[in-house]
């Protein structure tokens, strides 16, 4: 009822604000009581059709029209802002873990603040601030990490004591609190009205809005959007934007060519009360009590409080009728734990009268991050959905990024963590989504500790060696649906159970991974790396080489059998992918990319390779099992198994050769290890996988071989200053900025994407530089561990953030990798970062508010490692004598 | 003083009893699956009684609840004796003859009833000989009266009720040389009891009711919801027909006094009952019996007290009203209960709670705040209690126990409130009767498949 009232109010203003629209709403209004509605006919053609009139759809329309795209039609099946948007709690919160999410929320907040002035539509914007409470020390650490991020972004934020909390909010019971984070700029809005305000502005800019119009499917020809079919006729268009919220999945599957949008709705409950005897002030801060799983905001003198329960109720798994959203039942029994938490937090509310328990479905995604971007299979098909209950906080920023994406070809920020292409068809199973969102929704309030792994939807993609490795104590994590080993628990070792090993400090596997690293350094380890994305590109003539030379920055015209590390760059010289390409023959290439590149890289290549039947691109990921043999003894193991000399003279570094290993023939052996350590990766046709693994393990015994996992791999690559795409590298990072100029051949004789941008950088210098930091005064045993996203300070001033970190067992220090910028002290303008700038500075890394001294380096410790290796070899020979 | 949930359970379950009818007893399939029964005292000792038995020489099952007043003697006697009177009334002539011959020649008598009794449901050993003799006299008369016609259940029920009440009256007038028995028969006659008895035989369900206990049929509608159908009329002032009947039976001059303050002669709540000879005998007879009776009787102010405006006795009858109902597959159960239950709960709620319990649908009615004024604190308490109730549903293995839990512990939302339950059950004896009445419940569950098959067979 309250929502309806809001609706009526906003409609009145809506009509006043836009006369053209009044006709339609009036006719529709009267229609409910009298005649059939006579809606404005749909246009036959438009540049863009947006489906969904919630906060996302209206925000995209608003930003598109602001950027000059005015031939836009927005279709809404019901009424504007009548779905999840209408029921949203209206909290704009910038306290986010991911920096891109934080930026979206910050932009939204600023946009909403001035929206009423811009549009004349009242948005109910009130700057209340928000207080996130910590009941435990770990929670406080988590809040401090966010606070560090917010502060360097220029968003006011402070960690406060329980007493200060009590001063800010009169009703809070602070007895069980250890601290809190206060973000004074956070705000409340009427979410429906924000959406209507955005629609008003968009409409004034020329966007046509049609309510009560359902999109039945999107027409696609030759992999491109050509139009949409609605219940009121067809509209031809070049771009389609799916902002259908929880119906986005179904809409994506409605056409002949499915667009997989992995999201699933869950019921979400919040409570509305009557006003207190002394009505609460409208500027009272919003309370977030993640340990109690609840949020509490002031609402019309009373409160609005909801939360994220441990036992969520997923719904519409089988895709139900949209209208049922209106009839969802209140479920008090389900709400009971949250009500308990509320009364525990604010005991004085006992006597407060209930107004309503609202059941408002929210859509959640498999990794708790929203979904935006263009479909990998249908060009011109854009998506913005799956907000994980933060739609209002993200609405403004997400709409802006998507509009930029459509207009400019890419947003102004790195949005890879949110890109639709991080998913593929494999995350599109309804069962998977249903199970996963049941885990994701409670996670909204759970402590976000480093190295978290999802527990549901697992064991989907596995290596043929899975059972063998599992039996040997493998502990697993998942990437893009693929099970990968973290480390191997030696027999007889008792590790803490999962719940207890959640820590911000030194983890319980520290010594286990240390032993694996030592073995990689001194003997030989096997890591199953089958998850890596593997493509083959071949042609009848020279097309493969010609095209790859254009798509990749390094020179691929190398002798057959050579492996080239190269970036796949965009026009700005940024990394779309970072890969290793082996030239198998004159006309065929084998390409290895990170696991989560499977969809993105495929799309990138498909969209840029000519439509030529003599040029084939094949995804062979599933065809090969990859075993990474790392360590000085790898060469011995392999030469014994193949009866072929494997020493550097015969098998130099960055070399690839098909050979036999054991009884199996046709194994692609490459002398790379992705770590900087000596060794080989074996690409084994899957039917030979078990055989080769057994042979390697048997033969390796005398060289001290053992299994190892990705944690060891990560420690090795980070101490060697190896950047990893998706973690350190992204579409906004060029090879020049991360010390990889040697992987760019500006004068290779052919043009390539990003060449101009790189030339310019070569001449003018770079504005950020990938730097390695060694923590100096950090105690591994007692201090908080770095993770990633920690602010970097140079001479006390913020210069950038870390992108990854690991403990280096060789250096016996923590190593962080990150980018250093040079902001002008007065203007904040970005200046060129020179090697001198990096080298002449005192650095500190901020881990949850505590700063640790760090030494910056632009090059890895090659000499140090060389020395150590010689020493290690002596030790090892001693070991063998024993 | 606070009772923990296990303590509450032990009180609630002290008198519970369940009986499952063997699916096939060798002769026929029963339309009754079984029954759950329980009673919760408010009076000390409890004045309610209950009985259940299977007729062995005829088909069918008898179940009844009896609500005593002015003591428990009459209810006790009726609970022991009434089913025998009914069974005898139903017996064919040949069987009666066979029984009489067996008794006469000292042979073993055919068993007439198989009782289904809780250990607390006792029979008075001292009076059994006396009761047997009265019963034998009854069947001897039936043998003499042999009409040759098949016995009509309705008629048999009415005859049995009337005959038993008559015997109670006669035994008190005649007295007994044994002073204990003499005092017993007088206490039986001067106290009273209502009776609500069900006779189930295949699809034929007969309810014979005397007084204000009630029989309610639980019907499952096509949409799965539950509704309650009354199978008895309360004999009290709320029943217009009863008021009219009582007034009709007495001269116009007494019209105002016969029913006063919703009570018979301003005294008695039920308008029909066993015993209660103070409302049946002439003043002379009452005085005579009391004077010649034992001292205890003489000292009792109540028995000596003659109702005011007592001109044209009898004012009270034990004659039952009998309702016949043909069972349908949607008739899932029958609830027989004394007014202690019906005072606290509406029959629709009773039918729903039992229906949901028996069908194993422990689905709680969702709570809706609707227009009510509910505070967060109240809701919190209610929800905590509902959580407890989910376990309580599984705690109760007996539908009657489950009903009593609701009857005593229900709060304004219709859900069991443990605090309330604890308070109600820990009331001292002298206070308990002010907050609640004795409650006796028997829930009979029907076998829909058998009923469906019977229907189709006809």
UniProtKB/TrEMBL annotation, chain A:
Gene3D superfamilies found in the cross-reference section: Aminomethyltransferase beta-barrel domains, D-Amino Acid Oxidase, subunit A, domain 2, FAD/NAD(P)-binding domain, Probable tRNA modification gtpase trme, domain 1
Domain Rhodanese, chain residue ranges per copy: 48-88
Domain of life where this protein originates: Eukaryota
Primary subcellular site in the record, as a coarse category: mitochondrion
Cross-referenced Pfam families: DAO (PF01266), FAO_M (PF16350), GCV_T (PF01571), GCV_T_C (PF08669)
Signal peptide boundaries: none
GO CC terms: mitochondrial matrix
Swiss-Prot/TrEMBL keywords: Mitochondrion, Transit peptide
Transmembrane regions: none
Compartment list: Mitochondrion matrix
UniProt record similarity statement: Belongs to the GcvT family.
Function: Decreases the sensitivity of PDP1 to magnesium ions, and this inhibition is reversed by the polyamine spermine.
PANTHER family assigned to the protein according to its UniProt record, in alphabetical order: PYRUVATE DEHYDROGENASE PHOSPHATASE REGULATORY SUBUNIT, MITOCHONDRIAL, SARCOSINE DEHYDROGENASE-RELATED
Quaternary structure note: Heterodimer of a catalytic (PDP1) and a regulatory (PDPR) subunit.
Designated name of the protein: Pyruvate dehydrogenase phosphatase regulatory subunit, mitochondrial
Lineage: Eukaryota, Metazoa, Chordata, Craniata, Vertebrata
Gene: Pdpr
Automatic annotation (TrEMBL), chain B:
Primary localisation category: mitochondrion
Catalytic activity: O-phospho-L-seryl-[pyruvate dehydrogenase E1 alpha subunit] + H2O = L-seryl-[pyruvate dehydrogenase E1 alpha subunit] + phosphate
Family under the similarity heading: Belongs to the PP2C family.
Record GO cellular component, one term: mitochondrion
SMART domains per record: PP2Cc (SM00332)
Subcellular locations according to the entry: Mitochondrion
Pfam families: PP2C (PF00481)
Organism taxonomic ancestry: Eukaryota, Metazoa, Chordata, Craniata, Vertebrata
Name of encoding gene: Pdp1
CDD domains reported for this sequence: PP2Cc
Record organism: Columbina picui
Domain of life: Eukaryota
Subunit field text: Heterodimer of a catalytic (PDP1) and a regulatory (PDPR) subunit.
Cofactor(s) this protein cannot do without: Mg(2+); Mn(2+)
Keyword Metal-binding: yes
Record protein name field: [Pyruvate dehydrogenase [acetyl-transferring]]-phosphatase 1, mitochondrial
Boundaries of every PPM-type phosphatase domain copy: 32-446
Keyword Transit peptide: yes
UniProt xrefs under InterPro entries: PP2C (IPR015655), PP2C_BS (IPR000222), PPM-type-like_dom_sf (IPR036457), PPM-type_phosphatase-like_dom (IPR001932)
E.C. no: 3.1.3.43
Gene3D superfamilies xref list: PPM-type phosphatase domain (3.60.40.10)
